[in-house]
């Protein structure tokens, strides 16, 4: 008989696996509360919220939505600053791109351990499945997460528990091991069957697509940012801007971020006091920022790039307003660059 | 009853929710918290966060590209 006095915290990503893990433990009468960590690289929300063409779609934070479906409280924790060490110096290295998946999991479990200790919870659960992911969810790396996070055997993985050594919640009878699962591998069929069993029909796509660091194009832009600065550092605004617009780097010391549509332009406009900005005046065209330390000639060159993306791209001249960080404006009359004048290697 | 206004302009979700969550934790039951946001996602996310945590949404309004959610902090 499970011990209903026990309390579990759950890592809730908003995907199906963590949703099912919580549901399995709730089924045993255990109270569960969710933890969701925000690193700044979460796909959740950002670009959908910015791009005007997507604004007709319902916007929801999947972790909040999952928590509501499960009837649990959710604590969203800002780890943007603390996460920098994980990304910049991952002890276990990167995956295919700049994704430090194993170090990330260790970090989040360690943060969750701190949370359960501070809030007097008994154990932690996660939706991990043995063999599902190549880096952080292998049979040989799951114990690494437990050891290096300090959580030890207070981490229970309800979807794969019967393939793993019994954890303390199982040994002490807080939960009934026989009512846990033995999922393994990359197949999603067992999860889908379990979701059907619980009547769960609406859920986010399988876990793994929730972090921009696994995205090759994003990783290229992040690596370019570090290279251009001569050091591996970033602030939240930097990593958010990497998700928005076309990034065009004509020279190491500056790049142009050109909005692809009105929603992005509105968002970039909010940065006008931190960056040089450009907007076509004589023709309809995109808002743009210059990131870096442009010379007057660079600003003019950037204006020609912006003109190339305006309705005046075929006109002989386009007037572009350039504004510096102090708000001082000047009008530049420039020739729009032809597409062939923007080399492919400038496009990040 | 205290009413507090927090500026969540330019923050993208879930940051407005985190700001609301952290501020509400330091408030008393019955106090009101007004979040001024520019991310329209906040119109869904803050009320969802309120529902799962028992707080009452007392006002939602949008004008001029800004979205305001006012909540009343739950008791206990």
Low-confidence stretches of chain B: none
Taken from the alpha-carbon principal axes, the silhouette of chain B is: globular
Estimate the helix proportion of chain B, in percent.
25-40%
Topology as H/E string of chain A?
EHEHHEHHEHEHHHHEEHEEHEE
CATH topology of the largest domain in chain A: Rossmann fold
Helix tally of chain A?
Answer: 12
From the N-terminal CA to the C-terminal CA of chain A, the straight-line distance is: 57 Å
Give the largest interface pair and sizes.
A-B, 30 and 21 residues
Q: What is the oligomeric state here?
A: heterodimer
What is the class of the largest domain in chain A in the CATH system?
Answer: Alpha Beta
Largest sheet of chain B: 4 strands, mixed
- Care to count the β-strands of chain B? 4
- Quickly give the CATH architecture of the largest domain in chain A: 3-Layer(aba) Sandwich
Structural class of chain B: alpha+beta
Q: What's the CATH topology label of chain B?
A: Translation Initiation Factor IF3
Give me some keywords for this one.
heterodimer; A: 348 residues; alpha/beta; Rossmann fold; 5-stranded parallel sheet; 12 helices; 33% helix; B: 76 residues; alpha+beta; Translation Initiation Factor IF3; 36% strand
Q: If you had to describe this structure to a student in words, what would you say it looks like?
A:
The complex is a heterodimer of chains A (348) and B (76). Chain A is α/β, with parallel strands linked by helices and 348 residues long. Chain A folds into two domains: 7-212, 3-Layer(aba) Sandwich (Rossmann fold), CATH 3.40.50; 244-346, no CATH class. In chain A, 33% of the residues lie in helices and 16% in strands. Chain A contains twelve helices and eleven strands. Chain A has helices at residues 16-26, 46-50, 62-70, 80-88, 101-118, 142-149, 168-171, 189-197, 216-229, 236-241, 262-269, 296-308, and strands at residues 7-11, 31-38, 74-78, 123-125, 155-156, 246-251, 254-258, 276-280, 288-292, 318-323, 329-334. A six-stranded antiparallel β-sheet of chain A has the order 6-7-9-8-10-11, with helices on both faces. In chain A, strands 3-2-1-4-5 form a five-stranded parallel β-sheet, with helices on both faces. Chain A starts with 6 loop residues before the first strand and ends in a 14-residue tail after the last strand. The mean pLDDT of chain A is 91. By secondary structure, chain B is α+β, with helices and mostly antiparallel strands. Chain B has one domain (3-72): TusA-like domain (Translation Initiation Factor IF3, 2-Layer Sandwich). Chain B is 29% helix and 36% strand. Chain B has two helices and four strands; from the N terminus they run βαβαββ. A four-stranded mixed β-sheet of chain B has the order 1-2-4-3, covered by helices on one side. In chain B, helix 1 (15-24) packs parallel to helix 2 (42-53). The mean pLDDT of chain B is 94. Classes of the chains: A alpha/beta (348), B alpha+beta (76). The interface between A and B is medium-sized, with 30 and 21 residues.
